């Protein structure tokens, strides 16, 4: 099998595009103050903090929510927010 450096480049470009086109996701978590919460991820260059905020609003639509933590790091850009139901 012959090594083809362009194949790696194309694969990385496709992976970047797929990640950039993603949606905000969330997983349940327990917060430091004991409340049920969600760890909301809005990763990639195409998503902003607004995508995290929108997802949190969908999750806690009936009660509202408190943002307990916000983190941003790395390349490609990774963002996450810990949110809990408003007390």
Give an account of the 3D structure.
The structure is a single chain. It is built from two helices and four strands. With 87 residues, the chain is an alpha+beta fold. It has one domain (5-85). A hairpin with a 4-residue loop joins strand 3 (65-73) and strand 4 (78-85). The radius of gyration is 17 Å and the shape is elongated.
Structure, briefly:
With 87 residues, the protein is α+β, with helices and mostly antiparallel strands.
Number of domains: 1
Summing up helix and strand content along with how strands pair, one would put the structural category as: alpha+beta
For the largest beta-sheet, the strand count, sense and barrel status come to: 4 strands, antiparallel
The helicity comes to 25-40%
Please give the radius of gyration in angstroms.
Answer: 17 Å
- Strand content bin: 25-35%
Order of helices and strands: HEEHEE
Arithmetic mean pLDDT: 81
């Amino acid at each position: 099998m012959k090594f083809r450096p362009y194949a790696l480049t194309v694969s990385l470009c496709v992976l970047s595009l797929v990640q950039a086109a993603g949606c905000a996701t969330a997983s349940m978590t327990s917060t430091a103050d004991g409340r049920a919460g969600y760890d909301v991820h809005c990763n990639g260059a195409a998503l902003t903090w607004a995508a995290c905020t929108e997802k949190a609003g969908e999750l806690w639509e009936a009660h509202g929510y408190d943002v307990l933590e916000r983190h941003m790091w790395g390349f490609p850009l990774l963002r996450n927010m810990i949110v809990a139901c408003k007390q």
